[in-house]
Amino acid sequence: MAEKTLFIVKPDAVSRNLVGKVILRFERKGFKILKLKMFIFTQDQAEKFYDVHKDKSFFGELTSFITSGPVVAAIIEGNNAIATTRIMIGATKSFEAEPGSIRGDFGLGLSDNIIHASDSQESFDHESRIAFE
Ligand code: CMP
After folding, report:
1. I need a labelling partner for 77 at 20 to 30 A (CA). Which of 8, 26, 95, 125 fits?
2. What is the CATH number of the domain that holds 9?
3. How many other C-beta atoms are found inside a 10 Å radius of the C-beta of residue 31?
4. How far is residue 34's CA from residue 39's CA, in Å, rounded to a whole number?
5. Is 116 annotated as catalytic?
6. What is this structure's pTM?
7. Are the C-beta atoms of residues 114 and 102 closer than 8 Å to each other?
8. Is the CB of residue 61 below 6 angstroms from any atom belonging to ligand 1?
9. Which of 74, 103, 116, 130 is catalytic?
10. Tens-place pLDDT, residues 29-83
11. What's the number of domains the chain is made of?
């Protein structure tokens, strides 16, 4: 079933010139890129984007990192996009992510974990509205 999802290439990956390598993974897998945008999150956008985490101890760290430099947002489409993309990006803690996953192959960080991807239809609707507003 064709489904859409959103991913954000985070500031660490953009500053390390990994944008192309990350996007290539999704094109190679067979996803179609529907939208692509480079921008810098405002504080307000970041707080809305990550509002599910607003009561977490790391919320300040999270919003300060995601606003720290340019990101690249993409909406992609393909079979089972949400779940498949979550498998492709790997565990949140890059230092524990499986080799072969994007975080497992490119990073060691937690805030700076290369990429974010929507984890449900609801988060896709919410996050894509903010990223492509
Ligand atoms: P992401 O997939 O963007 O979703 C929420 C982000 O919060 C997550 O990736 C991590 O970058 C970040 N995160 C999760 N847990 C922690 C933590 N304990 N400390 C700092 N950042 C965290």
Report:
1. 95
2. 3.30.70.141
3. 23
4. 17
5. yes
6. 0.97
7. yes
8. yes
9. 116
10. 999 999 999 999 999 999 999 999 999 999 999 999 999 999 999 999 999 999 9
11. 1
